[in-house]
Amino acid sequence: MTEKLSAVGRANRYPLEHLPASSHICWQVDGDEDFDASLSGIVRAAASAGAALLYIVDRRPITALRRQLRAIAPEITAQDRVFLLEPPQILLDHARFDEQAALTQLRKFTQPQRAGELPAPWIVVEMSWATWGLPGSDRWQAFESLLDSAGQELYGMFLCQYDRRYCPPEMLAEALRFHPFILFNGWAVANHIYPGPIPAPILERDAVTAQLGLDDESYQEYLRVFLEEAENHVAQLSQAVQAGDAKKVDYHAHSLKGAAATIGAGRVRDAAWELEQMGKRGSLAGAPSALETLLQEIELVRRIIAH
After folding, report:
1. Which residue would you say has higher pLDDT here, 195 or 93?
2. Could you give the C-alpha distances from 231 to 157, 249, 255, in angstroms and in order?
3. pLDDT in tens, 179-209
4. How confident is the model at residue 43 (pLDDT cuts 50, 70, 90)?
5. Do residues 87 and 129 make contact, with C-beta atoms less than 8 angstroms apart?
6. Nearest CA to 245 among 289, 268, 278?
């Protein structure tokens, strides 16, 4: 499997901070050295994204883990954006697991982040608790399935960690079915074992820089120019939607779609396409909602550049 991931990763790998909120990632750990390297990448990426980090710990000493996090990214701990909890505090109810109750507890953490218009928090869940034999723990698959289907409603980036030292091989294999992405060498890699559609990343940086022969500095300049153009197109789209001018909506959405495709902003491209189709049909009933989605996707690109 490692060999397959190595080959796939070069074409379908993304920085963690380029994934959208609600992304669901399988993190399988091969010992302490692998854990330390992966954790460093996760924490630095969360700090770069300006996101809070909730870590649900089941086997590691919390005090030692807190020291480790502080050493990796002191800024994220100094700003009180790291929360360490044990399964009984958030996943288990009186030593019993219930997936719906667990989701309710997770919402209590994620919803204030959404209400405050903060970046979606990153939530690491160590899944070894599912091997403890507690009542309900055999329903870990139902929990994973709910995390996968809850989507934007939960407003969080979920990294479910399976430690190969504690989780049996059949559990490791089964876990892959629920995650569109796998954490591999610090990258989010598209998981082609996943049975559903794989969500588009916010930016496909590697594909664009390879295709256009750009270095990171040049790509950042492309992004800055794109955002300036997007601001103008969005202003024109807003006026056109309010005025019911379908031709103008078609024109500016089409232009923005092309610009987004050029810099690898696939989610912006798709949102602009929706507006473009409304303009072509001459029916703008859903345009205000589509425009709001477009604005949200552009803001995600803006946040990546800001950090």
Report:
1. 195
2. 27, 14, 12
3. 999 999 889 999 989 998 888 889 988 888 8
4. very high
5. yes
6. 278
Residue pair 229/211 in contact (Cβ under 8 Å)? The answer is no
Distances (CA, A) of 20 to 58, 236, 245, 288: 26, 26, 31, 22
CA atoms within a 13 Å half-sphere pointing along the CA-CB vector of 206? 13
Domains and CATH numbers, the chain: 2-190 (3.40.50.300), 205-306 (1.20.120.160)
Closest CA to 179 of 12, 11, 19, 25: 25
Determine contact, residues 246/284, Cβ cutoff 8 Å.
yes
What type of residue is 198? I
